[in-house]
Amino acid sequence: MSWVFQESDPMGGAAGEAYANTLKSPGMRPEHVLAREAIQNSVDAAIDGAKVRVCFRHQLLSGAAKAAFVEAAGLSGIAGRSDHLELASPNCLSTLDKPRTPLSLLYVEDHNAEGLSGDPHDKGSNFYRLLLSLGDRSKARTARGTGGSYGFGKSVYSSSSAIQTIFAYTRFVDDEGEERTRLFGCGYYASHEHKGRNFSGRAWLGTKKHEDAAGRLVIDPFEGKQADKLAERLGFSLREAGDLGTTILIVDATPSLGDIVAGVEDWWWPRLIEHKLDVEVYDDKGALYVPRPKKNDQLRPFIEAFEVARGIATPKQGSQKLSPLNRLGETTLGTCGFVVAPVNGKRSMNPALESEAVL
């Protein structure tokens, strides 16, 4: 079992690093970007009427466990050409044979989501959109509007890996109504030359290598028992019957779990406080951290404004206000809640410091 690197197309095409670099410099902490984009992908793929649950699970491997993972993931095949891949330094490829140097893994799991369904090589399938395309905005063009378009946000997974390498393990319902599992590895590297041949920088770990009718290289994902067996070797939590969704494994991740929790609170507090989303963060010892936006002092004015706008709280005289929005013809546009934000622990009457929520 080994990685397959795509040879460069004579007509060009995006290099592998383009898939990973899109969100590397967004002007905020990488963990906040991961919290925002990964959960958005999961929410977009929610099963109708179900509340999505997302888990971030960190693991550190050393000794025999590390060696077993390195073999199962085929990392030596990537390390063999690492000098040409333009990866961040330091990274795990230089320490694969050092059992005492821990290997950091981050699993991002969603539950009650559709999973990576469809023909893996059909550009309209969830599998293709997440793992094989770049900048796909097809969800915006569909009437159904669910299942996830992924767009550029999916690059958050590979950009969170020092070696720009991920695995996806998923359980989904196929066109015949049967549940299936599949697993696929993806690497997104710089275009490079290796042994006299030119490569695009994209690489895959799958079950088959063959050519389609046009002579193009095709790699299929592992399916069924084969997928589950490899998933277990890679440390995934196996998905039993009914547990639909996707787990992304970010290899050589160096997350600050505190920053992930803060990022979840900052970007997802409305869903969290209305109990429309569950998020759990586990460290490498198994300790659980749950985002609690109502205990976040920076968010308190916004949450107060939100609750005023929703009618959950009665406006406090002098510092809070509820105002209906102007009607658009016969259409009521909703209400707006205002809260004067505190400065140095005191309420300021400066309108520029108001927090606002519109519903």
What report would you give on this structure?
- With about 350 residues, this protein is α+β, with helices and mostly antiparallel strands.
- The strands form four sheets. Strands 1, 2, 3, 4, 5, 6, 7, 10, 11, 12 and 13 form an eleven-stranded mixed sheet that branches.
- Helix 2 crosses helix 8.
- The protein is globular and about 75 Å long.
Short description:
With 359 residues, this protein is α+β, with helices and mostly antiparallel strands.
Question: What topology does this entry show?
Answer:
Layout: E1 4-7, H1 16-21, H2 30-44, E2 52-61, H3 63-73, H4 75-79, E3 103-111, H5 126-131, H6 155-159, E4 165-173, E5 179-188, E6 192-194, E7 197-205, E8 208-211, E9 217-220, E10 222-223, H7 224-233, E11 245-251, H8 257-273, E12 277-282, E13 288-289, H9 300-310, E14 320-324, E15 335-340, E16 342-343, E17 346-347, E18 354-358
Helix pairs in contact: 2-8
